[in-house]
What does this fold into?
Amino acid sequence: MSENLIKVGITQGDINGIGYEVIFKTLADNRIFESFTPVIYGSSKVAAYHRKALNIPNFSLNSIKDIGEAHSKRINIINCLDDNIRVELGKSTTIGGEAAFNALELAVKDLKDGKIDVLVTAPINKKNIQSDSFNFPGHTEYLEQQAEGSKALMLMVSDIMKVGVVAGHVPLKDVPSKITKESILAKLRTLNETLTMDFSIRKPRVAVLGLNPHAGDQGVLGTEEQDIIIPALDEAKQEGIMALGPYPADGLFGSEQFKNFDAILAMYHDQGLAPFKALTFSKGVNYTAGLPFIRTSPDHGTAFDIAGQDKANFDSFRQAVYLAIDVCNNRRENKELRKNPLKTHDLSELEGGE
It folds into this structure.
């Protein structure tokens, strides 16, 4: 396998959903081999089942036992499942959850060991994947635990906006307890770092949303803005983070004022993701920022209702693959720049040569 190509690990996701369909459609273009080597973590048998259901006759896979056998000019697949696995298109099954986790577990191990450069995850079903080994609300929290000490930030990325959230996969009733000065600061630090290192944005500008309607209306509709969010922003500014706000969510998105910022930090999941998906659905990518490794995913779910029907839009998954590659290249370049900064000289040396 060529050492110059980025190795992209791809997990199959739920075997009864649209994961294989969007993977096949993304990898069907032979030009992919010019920029990366794909390695699917899944099952040759399950892949063959989906190819038949989707009537895709000319799509060959290179079945391998481990990453060391991957071929740079082939679509590689590592078998993570028992050959007796049963596919039930469009259904949420325990077997589907187990299969999704088996692929994820092996892919993350290879990612942490540096055997693949980036990870792109096809959608899982958050309910059927639950087990003693996976007791998390989603990929983000599992990957954070695997990163051992790092704090993840779910960052939705598209061509027109980037949206992160303070309180991610938590029930709405628990959101207020998650909104603290410390949690906001932590997310702002992570967001500022990822915008700089992973997206190569110098001095990024971040819009921070309020928690309450109209950002509290100066305390009339709630005091979290005055008591928690504004003090967090003041401290962030002292650290050199250009975080502005708090802004009312409806006004920021409705007036397109969001275009003046490099990213937006929402207080909770739907506050940020609802407008993001309304404006960019099928083009957006979920990026897990703040981790030592790189992971992206499409901004949609398993779509059981259309599984196996050749109706899935693969734009988001394709964008997820190429965003992972871009972030990998940016991170490598910026790490190198930080390691070898421009040498500074004393002014007297330049003037007098003494």
